[in-house]
Amino acid sequence: MPQLDTSTWFITIISSMITLFILFQLKISSQT
């Protein structure tokens, strides 16, 4: 199992948070 360096983890986490944020915004905007 290859080790992931810190930058890879950072990019993965940031991408996930951005995706969740966008989905959350879309959900909010579709309700109004």
TrEMBL record:
Spans traversing the lipid bilayer: 6-26
Localisation per UniProt entry: Mitochondrion membrane
Alphabetically ordered keywords of this record: Acetylation, ATP synthesis, CF(0), Hydrogen ion transport, Ion transport, Membrane, Mitochondrion, Transmembrane, Transmembrane helix, Transport
One GO-annotated biological process of the protein: proton motive force-driven ATP synthesis
Pfam family name, one: ATP-synt_8
InterPro entries: ATP8_mammal, ATP8_metazoa
GO cellular component: mitochondrial membrane; proton-transporting ATP synthase complex
GO molecular function: proton transmembrane transporter activity
Its membrane topology: Single-pass membrane protein
Keyword Mitochondrion (UniProt): yes
Sequence similarity: Belongs to the ATPase protein 8 family.
Protein's UniProt name: ATP synthase complex subunit 8
